[in-house]
Design a protein that fits this description.
CATH class of the largest domain: Alpha Beta
Number of strands: 20
Helix content: 25-40%
CATH superfamily of the largest domain: Metal-dependent hydrolases
Distance between the termini: 26 Å
Bound molecules: zinc ion, copper (II) ion
Radius of gyration: 22 Å
Shape: globular
CATH topology of the largest domain: TIM Barrel
Number of domains: 3
Structural class: alpha/beta
Strand content: 15-25%
Number of helices: 16
Length: about 500
């Protein structure tokens, strides 16, 4: 580089964590256009100079588990994401995808009741739409098996005909060609759950190949049947010859607490025989889903609960009920008492009044399990944030800062370089996001500057719409999208294609 040249941006004197898990080192980062061009001691001046002394500098966080498929189009500034340092959002999780268009839209109206976007054609069309909208973060997409099954055969519980299976396979092939990073299932949800193991293997096989995608799964059971569900996920990956990502790994329901030791052992065993299986997690003891899913899984029945485990009315908090905001913030137990009915009766009354668009927060996990999963080397971070109205689960705003504040700094569950690797370099490699997730010359300038002594989540179950503290700046493709907890309004993101 000739002397006298200038960079667009130089972030000077921070402790740089390169995303590989290596310890931080004091260095400058030089950016020109969308890419990092220098790393070390940078003598060139930048048109913008940022004094990062006393701050950490890391690659932007990759949220491997999101449900922002429509949010990035309807609300392209996605403040809940970029304000917590997320620079790449992996959408299409839990079997809910954007293809075929109509079936996808039906599912996402549960999150965005009034959404009415202009249709797109296939995953190619979706990624092109993302490119033209230009959200504030980058977007990678998974092929949602549930939406495809609905598109091919409605809500039927039977096996698909050969023709229906061919339609689904064709959608998968189109997704793979368009650059989708993998295929997801949501096996507690209708109609994803009606697919038997072999049907899933048939679809996942389409992802096989040196540069094919991965299989991400919200497993059939995260409760009494957790271990069999892990075995099924591994079998699908192994028989299809495709890497596996177990979504939001947990043991759900009191009587299953502690079982993550066994599920993590199954994962270690599979890895030892060469299966590429990893997981992701949001660092909370409560999950979030639709009330319809709680009921479809018989969660209030002690004798036969499904994939969520057995729940009490007090474990289930109404987080979003657009037609009846007066129910938000109440538990099903409270409503049952108010109405003088039993737990299932109250839940049914809410469902009748609100339908599919009722979202709940479910307190189902043990803190010790949360820590055990987080400490395990195969765990990445995925928010599972659901951008609903009302009071969404606080993970939507706080997930990544909570890992770095509560679990790294305070509880010391894992070291800072390791935690950052699990949010950056590790997911970039697994999801084949080329030139993302690490700080080195040539990589895209997706960067987060934060104070490791102050970073914290502020979002709570009752006040979830709060950005974290301690994040000084966030850059996407070289442009600042957030400074000191405020969105800059910039929208430099784009659709990412697997391996490109
Ligand atoms: Zn899920
Ligand atoms: Cu999810």
């Amino acid at each position: 580089m000739a002397t006298g040249e200038r960079f667009d941006l130089v972030i000077r004197g921070g402790t740089v964590f390169d995303g590989t898990g290596a310890p931080g080192l004091r260095a400058d980062v030089g950016v020109r256009g969308e890419r990092i061009v220098a790393f070390g001691t940078v003598t060139h001046r930048g048109d913008v100079e940022v004094d990062a002394r006393g701050f950490a500098v890391a690659p932007g966080f990759i949220d491997v588990h999101s449900h922002d498929d429509y949010a990035v189009i309807l609300e392209p500034e996605v403040p809940f994401k970029v304000l917590q340092g997320v620079t790449t959002d992996v959408v299409g999780n839990c079997g809910s995808g954007v293809v075929p268009f109509e079936a996808g839209l039906v599912r996402f109206r549960r999150l965005h009741p009034d959404a009415d976007p202009t249709p797109w054609e296939g995953f190619k069309g979706y990624l092109e739409r993302v490119d033209s909208v230009r959200p504030s973060c980058n977007v990678a997409v998974l092929i949602g098996q549930g939406s495809m099954r609905r598109g091919a055969m409605g809500n039927d519980t039977r096996e698909p005909t050969a023709a229906e299976l061919d339609r689904m396979k064709a959608w998968v092939r189109e997704g793979v060609a368009a650059g989708a990073v993998g295929l997801s299932t949501g096996l507690i949800y209708e109609p994803s759950r009606y697919a038997k193991t072999d049907e899933i293997i048939t679809l996942v096989r389409e992802l096989r190949g040196p540069s094919g995608g991965l299989y991400a799964t919200h497993m059939r059971n995260e409760a009494d049947g957790l271990l069999d569900a892990v075995r099924e996920a591994i079998r699908i990956g192994e028989e299809a010859g495709v890497p596996v990502q177990i979504s939001h790994h947990k043991a759900s329901g009191r009587r299953n607490w502690g079982r993550v030791r066994d599920s993590l052992a199954l994962i270690d065993e599979a890895r030892a025989r060469g299966v590429d299986v990893t997981t992701d997690q949001y660092p909370y003891t409560a999950g979030s889903t639709t009330l319809a899913a709680v009921m479809q899984n018989n969660s209030f029945r002690a004798d036969s609960p499904g994939g969520l485990g057995q729940l009490e009315g007090g474990d289930v908090l109404i987080s979003s009920s657009p037609k009846h905001p007066e129910w938000e913030g109440r538990t099903v137990a409270t409503l049952a008492t108010n109405w003088g009915v039993d737990t299932e009766g109250a839940a049914q009354r809410v469902l009748d009044g609100e339908g599919d668009a009722c979202w709940v927060v479910v307190f189902t996990m043990d803190e010790r399990d949360v820590k055990a999963v987080l400490a395990h080397p195969t765990t990445m971070i995925g928010s599972d944030g659901v951008p609903t109205g009302g009071n969404p689960h606080p993970r939507l705003y706080g997930c990544f800062a909570r890992v770095l504040g509560r679990y790294v700094r305070e509880e010391k569950v894992l070291e800072l370089p390791t935690a950052l690797h699990r949010m950056t370099g590790m997911p970039a490699a697994k999801f084949q996001l080329l030139d993302r997730g690490t700080i080195r010359p040539g990589a895209y300038a997706d960067l987060v500057v934060f104070d490791p002594a102050r970073i914290d989540d502020a979002a709570t179950y009752t006040e979830p719409r709060q950005a974290p503290t301690g994040i000084r700046a966030v850059y996407v493709n070289g442009a600042a999208v957030a400074r000191d907890g405020r969105h800059t309004g910039a929208r430099p993101g784009r659709g990412l294609r697997r391996g490109r």
